[in-house]
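Q: Got a minute? One more chain.
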Amino acid sequence: MILVLSSSVEQEQELQQLLEEQQKKSSPNYHRWLSAAEFGARFGTADADIEKVCAWLESNGFTVGGVSKSKRWIEFGGTSQQVEDAFHTEMQYYRVAGKTHIANATDIAVPQALAEVTRGVASLNNLGKRPPGRVTEGIAGRDSQGRKTLLQPNLTASGATNTYYLAPGDFAAIYNTKPLLAGGIDGTGIAIAISAQSDIELTDVQEFRQIFALQANDPNFIVSGPDPGVTSQVDAEEAQLDVEWAGAVAPGATIDLMVAGSTATTSGVDLAAAYAIDNQVAPILAYSYGSCEQALGSAGNAFYNSLWEQAAAEGITVLVAAGDNGAAGCDNATAGIAAIQGLAVNGAASTPYNIAVGGTEFVEGATASTYWNSANAPDFSSAFGYIPEAAWNEGCDPAEPASATNCIYSNANFSLLAGGGGASAIYSKPAWQTGPGVPADSARDLPDVAIAAASGHDDFVYCTSLAGTPCQLNGQSVTGLTLVGGTSAATPTMAGILALVEQKNGAFQGQANRVLYRLAQMQGNSCD
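A: Always. Here it is, folded:
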């Protein structure tokens, strides 16, 4: 479990001032990043208070696993009975979607003497965090009318209309990184940390890079705690996707797969992210999981806010998938029912200290041949260059007539599939969040940036042997590819773009939104 610690009002004010100065070129603190130990000394909980908290935990039978260098959280473990006795709650089993889970039935309580130095336990359930990505097995697509088509697995589909899949070369053409890659700006010297809760198959990564003519560059496996192995197909495929596509966009970058096993109460992706930031593993961290603000509770939201804030002070840029359920952040996008949980956003993505990555959809219209070649290049790419984009929205209400914003790519069931976003119910609007299209709502709005993510229309291809047949290169064709769409595909690709930026401008750029929003304010009709 993770006990979230508090900082004082004075510490928080001083930290906010420092974060401003670290991004101001006229300041002597410009890009003077802190180590985790320096952060803890200045902005962490006092040593005497930490000793008091640890003593209380141990007096209740818990084992203290360690205190973070930032002095902002404590790892500890124990039994459910100890949790019930110490935190005055009830732990119960719940049946959810046919699976048994454990969770606290009531809010926890801590002694008054500790209330000022702790925000509570980040999570007391194993409902877990899930990636928003929507995986489609095998090779399939749709034509210009949105009808399903069965295709040969050769990316640009011979004989099909408006059915194309994103290979690494396509991405480089569409998002104009080809000149950078040709000039040696390929992410070399920059590390990207991928937060994961499952191991992956290294051979899948190697085959992916061979098929798409990327230089050999194996990821590093960094395990925090016991190695969980391959925990589930969903988690393994998410990690596989993130590793392959961060490396596809920045083929020279060092990809660090941060793996931690989930416990009965805490998601492994959170433990992995905390380890990566507290040990400053990489200047860029990609996190493709989440849960809505309402479901996280005060301690869960405080954990992400504190962790990403620490990352910003250390110069680490954190990218978080905004989600694939539009404005209904608490609802299941593919459950086949209308949203019932109200407006909500991903709490892991809504803090002021991370970049929230949303999704777009390519808008080729009836002129796909303008943007796509009818044949594949040797690296299986076929895009000529930039393709116009619109907000990704595949939402469907079967009670309404089909239109440009309803039931485009649906099978007449309720669907909430769309790029996640909206206004935070917790955070006020950061001073840097101004620019064209930003609502005057006084709330932290997301997403911040968006990249192609429309499932069923702009699918990315990647290799995972867990889905069935491993990827294989057979002369001029490739078999065994898996399709995926969603903001969990957009997030690692944006991480790859930032790796190119950091190779050019220096590693550790911190909360890059401060620069991105200034760039957005500068754009005009002829400059995007």
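A: The CA atoms of residues 60 and 134 lie 43 Å apart.
Q: Perfect, thanks.
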